[in-house]
Amino acid sequence: MPVKKIKPYFLDFSRILAGLVFIYSGFVKGIDPLGSTYKFTDYFVAFNIEFLEPFALPLSVALSAAEMLIGITLLASVHMIITSWALLLFMGFFTILTFIIALTNPVADCGCFGDAIILTNWETFWKNVVLMFFVLYIFVKRKNFSPFFTKPVFEWMTAVVFLIIILGISAYSYLNLPVIDYRPFSIGADINEKMSVPPDAPADEYEITLYYEKDGDVRPFSTDSLPGSDWQWVRTESTLISKGYEPPVTDFYIESADDGTDYTYAILDDPGYTFILVAYNLDKSSRLSIVRINRLAEWSAGYGINFICLTASTGSQIEGFITETGAGYDFYHADEITLKTVIRSNPGLLLMKNGTILAKWHYRNIPHADELKENLLSYSAELQQESGNKLVTYGYLLALFLIISLLKVIRPGVNSSSHDSAVNRRPDGRN
Predict the structure, then answer these.
(1) Which residue from 91, 80, 88, 59 is spatially nearest to 159, judged by alpha carbons?
(2) Tens-of-pLDDT digits for all 431 residues of the chain?
(3) What is the DSSP-derived secondary structure letter of residue 368?
(4) CA atoms within 13 A on the CB side of 172
(5) Would 419 disulfide with which of 80, 88, 146, 409, CB 3.0-4.6 Å?
(6) Is 12:418 a contact under the CB 8 Å cutoff?
(7) Against a cut of 0.85, is the pTM above it?
């Protein structure tokens, strides 16, 4: 196929590829605004700009909305001059930023795809470099795109409608729980399994170098070629050459708030039901559902069901919380970062059995005691079914939006080659 005929297809391919990457990146952040908020906070702390922490949540929502909006407008060829400039500036800024982050490595995971795809900082940078090639091509050819809509007002309406939808997704996920949970503590996850290492899993491999000294001369030696007894050992260095298997959950523990006794497996291996109230910081936790939580704890005690609270707060904070709220359940310590990962709510509630998470609730949706049934397994199954139905609905809506946007590719007479012909045609109809 001649190069001239390939160019329009490559231009559409570049537009679709960049659009899908931006939509996916923005979507996985948009459905988990608190996750991106925590990531922003990590960066602010790492770069000693903690004064920006109050802006972490607005920046999280703004970033996801900008990515999704750029992606949607790319797919639908909406205002391509403006979109191409926004795309270039966005990618240029973050390519430079990710290069700096890769060099300094202040945070191990950049969070560019949320918890859906974990990339190292260097992997993120090289991903941006590859994508930048297509972005530059889109920018250079920005005048070769034809609008999907014949009237500019419809282009603006498309952008505004999608922006409202994007912000609505973020608002819903913030006020409730993420509509899709990519973390290892999702409903149905077996924490024991997530913490275990398979017997045949590869282990870390290290290269051992030993340094010996003789007559003031220090030389490195491998373990296979050690020097004679006239050499004196100085030091040993180990270098990781191959990373082995790392389980999805590594920092989950449950300790007594009084003496630090480990209760992790005693609680995870409990064959009965356990309600776990997760509040990574009791001083910052919402008091909106405290009455409902206390009644649920009382209801649980009446049916012989465990009800505990996991927190990273200090003993004095726990005592103050009990005095303020009248909490009548036991408190245990856990890692703060892990608790933020377990549930995006402070406090949030889990229902667990045999180490498996059966249900999760945001503090705004804590169930009333009279809503619960004695057979909690059946009740949790109903909740999972409702959650699954919502997920399918969101999936269908997103697929519909993408299909509508992709119509630009197959709509006759609006590709780049037809645009070029229209531009170069003379008023008398001849080229």
Answers:
(1) 80
(2) 444 555 667 888 888 889 889 988 888 888 889 988 988 888 888 888 888 889 999 999 999 999 988 988 888 787 888 889 999 999 999 999 889 888 888 877 777 777 777 888 888 899 999 999 999 999 998 888 776 666 667 777 777 887 888 888 888 888 988 888 888 998 888 999 999 888 888 888 888 999 999 888 899 998 888 888 888 999 999 888 888 888 888 889 999 988 889 999 999 998 888 999 999 999 999 998 899 999 999 988 888 889 999 999 998 999 999 999 999 899 999 999 999 999 999 999 999 999 999 889 999 988 887 777 655 655 665 555 555 545 555 555 555 555 555 555 444 434 444 444 433 443 444 44
(3) P
(4) 13
(5) 146
(6) no
(7) no
C-alpha span between 323 and 314 (Å, rounded): 14
CB 372 within 8 A of CB 349: no
Residue 209 backbone dihedrals phi, psi, to 5 degrees:
-125, 125
Take residue 423 and report the two structure tokens written for it.
Answer: 């531009």
Burial class (CB in 10 A: 0-12, 13-18, 19+), 35: buried
Q: Cα separation of 175 and 38, whole Å?
A: 16
Contact 162, 60 (CB under 8 A): no
Strand partners, 210: 221, 236
17 CB-contact burial (10 Å; exposed 0-12 / middle 13-18 / buried 19+): middle
Q: Please report, for residues 40, 41, 43, 101, 182, the alpha-carbon distance to residue 51 in angstroms, rounded to integers and kept in the order given.
A: 12, 10, 12, 20, 30
Residue appearing with tokens 């649920």: 296
The rounded Cα 213 to chain-centroid distance in angstroms is 50
Question: 33-46 vs 152-175: helix axis angle to the nearest 10?
Answer: 80
Regarding the domain delimited by 255-372, which CATH topology (the fold level of the hierarchy) does it fall under? Glutaredoxin (3.40.30)
Instruction: Give me the residue label for tokens 């030993």.
Output: 210
Q: Taking the domains of the chain in order of start, what are their residue ranges?
A: 3-175+396-424, 205-242, 255-372
Supply the DSSP string of 87-116, one letter for each residue: HHHHHHHHHHHHHHHHHH-SSSB--TTTTT
With both helix axes pointing from N to C terminus, report the angle between 152-175 and 3-30 in degrees, rounded to the nearest 10.
30
